[in-house]
Write a structure and sequence with these properties.
The chain has 344 residues and is of the alpha/beta class. The protein has eleven helices and 13 strands. The strands form two sheets. A seven-stranded parallel beta sheet has the order 8-7-6-9-10-11-12, sandwiched between helices. 1,4-dihydronicotinamide adenine dinucleotide binds next to helix 4 and helix 6.
Amino acid sequence: MQVAFFDAKAYDIPSFEKYGGENGIEFKFYETKLNADTAELARGCDAVCVFVNDDVGAEVIDKLYGEGVKLVALRCAGYNNVDVRSAYGKIHVVHVPAYSPYSVAEHAAALLLTSLRRIHKAYVRTRDYNFSLNGLTGFDLHGKTVGVIGTGKIGRVFIDICRGFGMNVLAYDKFPNPEVPAKYVSLDELFEKSDVISLHCPLTSETKHMIDASAIDMMKKGVFIVNTSRGALIDAEALLEGIKARKIGAACLDVYEEEGDVFFEDLSGHIMDDETLSRLISMPNVIVTSHQAFLTEEALNNIAETTVNNILSYFNNDGVCDNELCYRCGEIENCRKGERKRCF
Ligand code: NAI
């Protein structure tokens, strides 16, 4: 079985070669991202394996379908880059719903602490034998209020971490879970009362730009915003304005609305075309990491193992894969998973 693997990076290849090799899957690694121009690289392959910034829109789906590709195997949880409605009836889609919620939640905490205690600044200073503390004052997290938006797998781990710091936890979720140790409030109340806001919900048409100018208006002055979920949850222009107005105390961003052409690439030595991103990066109270929250050894192994199992269960046995998804996922009356059937 051959699988075209797009947006391949050095850190992906060993785990996929290992699990693929053990299970008779040959991954053809391509550094390029999947898009309408590169889709033909999948010719002759049974499946494609894609990541967060590959374009799996309607046009690409039609091209892959034309090349005989039967399966899109996402090696990530989020699938906002896949037009699942266009794929329905043509190409099946599987994803890795969970591989290590700890990796992402711990990275969110790392960003928060780094920013709050100015560790990134202190690191640079002491390497230059500058031992001054001026400008490095933070605040205690203990006793502060954190607002967690999205209390699924990652949000819950992040809540546990925050409770460990002695924070009061407010939460907002479209589907509140009574087992989550947090007080569910409306989104507006969360914006109004939180000292720290961390995003852990998926990007959908409903959640796009949930942090916009009016949301920022409602927030406390000095609020810390942490986003390890998807960039477009935040209107980046509005964020920049909030920072310039000294309303936002800090932004910790592992994701960015227009990250597709930039993140995962070494662009040092290039002129940055994206003025909003370069302006954000230039701010002393903004930390940007390049969608690396998932990047732990445990997560990489789990991603490769689950992706290989997804491909095997699709092509072998009865073709049913528990991790298949479609645009009707969540519609109880239409979902065929309970009957152990493919989505179509
Ligand atoms: P999950 O599916 O376990 O949890 C998502 C939660 O969001 C659920 O509780 C759901 O009810 C809630 N939700 C859905 N629609 C909502 C809405 N309109 N408003 C508020 N809440 C809503 O997902 P998980 O594993 O916790 O991942 C969360 C997100 O983290 C993913 O969607 C993905 O975008 C992002 N992620 C980022 C990574 C990174 O490397 N930066 C790696 C993995 C995931």
